[in-house]
Every structure is written in C-alpha cells, then in structure tokens.
Amino acid sequence: MTIQLKQVSKTFGSFQALQSINLNIADGEFVAILGPSGCGKTTLLRMLAGFEQPTSGEIAIGGSVVASSRSSLPPEKRRIGMVFQNFALWPHMNIYEHVRFPIRTHKETPRAIREREDERINEVLQLVGLAHLAKRMPHELSGGQKQRVAIARAIAPQPALLLMDEPLSSLDAMLRMDMRREIQSVHRETGSAIVYVTHDQGEALSMADRIVVMKDGQIEQVGTPQEIYLRPQTEFVARFVSKANLIQGSWSGNRFMPLGADPSTFWPGDAVADCFKSQGLYPVRPDQFRLEPAHTGGLYGEIVNVQFQGKEFNYDVRAAGQQWEVISPAAFKLHDQVTLHIPGVASKTSLGASSSAGSSS
Ligand code: ATP
C-alpha cells in the first residue's frame, strides 16, 4: 500500500510544527525521517498513525484519504503498527499475550491471521528470536528483548505500515547495532513499509531505502542514503548528515580555490550543489580528506587535536583561521604541519615533486 502526504501542515496554537509536507512512500519501502530534536518528526509520525489531525493537506493510504483538516480515520482503523522508544509493554501480560492482543483487538487484522492466531504468534516470536521466552513477563526481560516484544506485537496483525519512533534510543550502543540488523530482517520478512523516526544519522543511513531530512517543520532533502550522504543539497544536510566541513574560498566557474591554500590549488566542483557555490563554500566530509605532510600543494594546516580510534585517527586541523575535522589512517602528532587534500586532486608528493614520507610520526 502506498502512502501519500500532500501539502500536509500542522499547527499547535500559533506554532507551525509542520509546513507543506509532500511525500510519497512506496509499498514496502523503508523510509527514515531524520532530523534534530523539535523538527517535527514525531508529529509527522503521529499524523500517519491517526493520533494527530492535519491542520491542512491530506494523507492517503492505499489511495484512500485517511486524514485531512475535515476528518481523520482513527488509529485502529488504519492498518498500522507502532513501536515506541520506551517499549510501552504491559506489566501484567506475558510475551505471548502481548503478541496476541493486537491480533484480537485490531479491527483491521486480516481474517486469515485471526483464524490461525496461535500459529501467527509463534511465527512472529520466531522472527524476533523470542519463541523460547513466550511465557516470560516484561520484568523478566532485558532491554533488547523488551524491544523485540514491542516489534513482535506491532507486526503480529500484519500491518501495511510499521511506524517506529526512535525505537533504539533507550538501548546501549552495542545492542543498538544488533537491533539494526533485526529491524532490517523484520522489514525483509514482513514486506511492510516502515517509517522510522530518528535523530541518529547512522541508523537512517544504514537501514533506510530513502531518507527524509527535516528541519524546522520542513523537508530539507529526500534521497537514498548515498544521495543524502554524498551529495547534500543544503548546508544543513551537509552538516547534520555528512558532518561535512564547509571550507571557505572562492569559486571560479566550476573550480574552487580554498582560502589559505597553496595558490595552485583548485578543487573540482562537479558534485557540489549550487547553494554552496553561491556562498563561496565547499563541503568536505571528515573521511574525505587525505592528510599529507606540510606543503604538498593543498590547504595547509596544523594538527591541534588527535584522537586515536583504532583503525584511524580523528584530527582537528586548524587551517586558514578555521578548525576542521579530519578522519584519516595516516599518523600525525599534535602540532604537526599538514596539507589537506581532497579526492581526485593530486598533491605535489603524488606527482613526485616532493620526497616527503606519508607520515611524520
Ligand atoms: P524529538 O526528536 O525531540 O522528539 P521531534 O522532531 O519529534 O523532536 P515533535 O515532537 O514533532 O519534534 O515536535 C515538533 C514541534 O512541535 C516542537 O517544537 C514541539 O514542541 C511542538 N509540539 C509537538 N506537539 C505539540 C503539542 N501537542 N502542543 C504544542 N506544541 C507541540
């Protein structure tokens, strides 16, 4: 079932929480809504669920309008499952009963599922790896197991759309990584569309088919994870998703000359969006820079902070009066003089003009 939002806005009193949202979600698609706190992610999700009504615009599910400023279909009449950040389990029900509850109570549960309820519950518990714990009560479960119960409960009646609101944010870092895989597997196995709200770029980039980046109640950019990460179209997306450094300098046609760089340095601008060109900026992700010893014909700087990360180093590099973040496998020491290069641009070292080694440590 496709989901369409047309010119959807929401105001609370005089505050505009969402403004003219247009979005189509394909059948079975995994869409992440990514943005900072307060940008309207949860409000958007609550409107899809039927807990909030749009102030203007329309929401259609499977071609039928379910919400507008005039009417709103209640949550139980939409084929939707929800998973919340805080699990929202019922303390008096065991796992089996949690999964059975929506099968029995959701008005939209397909008859074929109601008729083989026990089989469906076992199937869903198998999918989330909890079949052996069916009789356990919520207080006897770990955080990850509780979240799996919440997912099993949401998918049991076979919703066309699964809404997830920061479902991993109350889990510890290791578990969050494992649960990403589980959610991907649930998506593959169920075929439900997923709308997944998060402020975590890593979660959105690693799991979603498409990412909707939001800021101040509006959509900034919609695209595949690769498009969003590699070709940000706005300053906000570049900073928020790619953690990009916005290097200052001057554009001459499609060539960029960074401020404070060796005068012969030009960076190519084919992949850079117009909004950066008009502001004399060039976005470079921390892992995109190549670090070489000083004076190899690029942007010159000094290492002002070093963090060893195992496979690579996180550096703060001061160049042309600004500080940039760089992730590089090359080892340098605090106060080393370095040159920042970008991909596709040869340095004097790589051209054979200097005999400096690649590392000074
Ligand atoms: P977070 O990541 O912190 O949950 P969010 O992106 O999900 O943030 P929303 O919860 O959608 O943001 O809120 C968007 C804006 O709307 C916020 O400024 C919030 O204060 C406001 N808002 C949300 N619900 C209401 C309400 N019922 N009444 C008034 N303002 C509200």
UniProtKB/TrEMBL annotation:
<feature type="domain" description="ABC transporter">
    <location>
        <begin position="3"/>
        <end position="241"/>
    </location>
</feature>
<protein>
    <submittedName>
        <fullName>ABC transporter ATP-binding protein</fullName>
    </submittedName>
</protein>
<dbReference type="InterPro" id="IPR050093">
    <property type="entry name" value="ABC_SmlMolc_Importer"/>
</dbReference>
<dbReference type="InterPro" id="IPR003439">
    <property type="entry name" value="ABC_transporter-like_ATP-bd"/>
</dbReference>
<keyword id="KW-0067">ATP-binding</keyword>
<dbReference type="GO" id="GO:0005524">
    <property type="term" value="F:ATP binding"/>
</dbReference>
<feature type="compositionally biased region" description="Low complexity">
    <location>
        <begin position="351"/>
        <end position="361"/>
    </location>
</feature>
<dbReference type="Pfam" id="PF08402">
    <property type="entry name" value="TOBE_2"/>
</dbReference>
<dbReference type="InterPro" id="IPR017871">
    <property type="entry name" value="ABC_transporter-like_CS"/>
</dbReference>
<dbReference type="InterPro" id="IPR008995">
    <property type="entry name" value="Mo/tungstate-bd_C_term_dom"/>
</dbReference>
<dbReference type="InterPro" id="IPR003593">
    <property type="entry name" value="AAA+_ATPase"/>
</dbReference>
<keyword id="KW-0547">Nucleotide-binding</keyword>
<dbReference type="InterPro" id="IPR027417">
    <property type="entry name" value="P-loop_NTPase"/>
</dbReference>
<keyword id="KW-0813">Transport</keyword>
<dbReference type="Pfam" id="PF00005">
    <property type="entry name" value="ABC_tran"/>
</dbReference>
<dbReference type="InterPro" id="IPR013611">
    <property type="entry name" value="Transp-assoc_OB_typ2"/>
</dbReference>
